[in-house]
Amino acid sequence: MATPTLALVDALRRTARKLSGGVPYQWGHMGSCNCGNLAQELTRLGKAEIHAFAMQGRGDWREQVEEFCPTSGLPMDLLIADMLTKGLTASDLQNLERLSDKQVLARISFERRNELRHNRRDDVVLYLNEWANFLENSLLATVELPSLEPAVKVSYAMQEA
Question: pTM to 2 decimals?
Answer without folding.
Answer: 0.82
